[in-house]
Amino acid sequence: MKIYLFLILFASVTVVAQTEKTTLEVLGNCDMCKARIEKAALKTKGVKYAVWQPETQQLALIFNSKKTSSQDVAKNIAAVGHEANGITATEAIYDSLPMCCQYKSVEPHVP
Questions:
Q1: How far is Cα 98 from Cα 67, in angstroms, rounded to an integer?
Q2: DSSP characters for the chain?
Q3: What integer pLDDT is reported at residue 7 of this predicted model?
Q4: Which end of the chain is more exposed for a tag (fewer CB within 10 A), N or C?
Q5: Is residue 109 assigned to a domain?
Q6: For residue 38, what is the domain's CATH number?
Q7: Could you report how far apart the first and last alpha carbons of the chain are, in Å?
Q8: Cα 42 to chain center, whole Å?
Q9: Domain carrying residue 28
Q10: Are 75 and 87 a contacting pair, CB within 8 Å?
Q11: pLDDT of residue 64
């Protein structure tokens, strides 16, 4: 009985130790972005929770650190057209976004 209890406690501590919480900086503009960003994050193996806050441009993320990393999540978000933690989308993917989701700001040229 003591051995089983020890194994159960060890297994539960191991699972908790592998879970990590973080936030990612993600650029986007509209409600369509929110759905696209969350879906890309949740498709990443090991991600348990992902909610993007448009007001702060941050993605709250809980994931299994044995299965993935925050950089892997950022790469998947970039693959759908949004910059995450400095990883940018390719021009072709970015250009395919609706105009309301094209978030890059162009600084005016000052002579």
A1: 32
A2: -HHHHHHHHHHHHHHHHHEEEEEEEB---SHHHHHHHHHHHHTSTTEEEEEEETTTTEEEEEEETTT--HHHHHHHHHTTT--BTTBPPPHHHHHTS-GGG--PPPPPP--
A3: 46
A4: C
A5: no
A6: 3.30.70.100
A7: 79
A8: 8
A9: 20-101
A10: yes
A11: 92
Identify whether 92 is part of a domain: yes
- All residues at 6 or more sequence positions from 19 whose CB lies less than 8 Å from its CB, including other chains: 48, 62, 63, 64, 65
**Who contacts 75 (Cβ-Cβ below 8 Å, separation ≥6)?**
84, 87
Instruction: Tokens for 60, please give them.
Output: 């709250």
d(CA 62, CA 18): 10
- The model's pLDDT over 10-56, given as tens digits with 9 standing for 90+, comes to 555 445 558 889 999 998 878 788 888 999 999 999 999 999 888 88
Whether residue 11 is contained in a domain is answered as: no
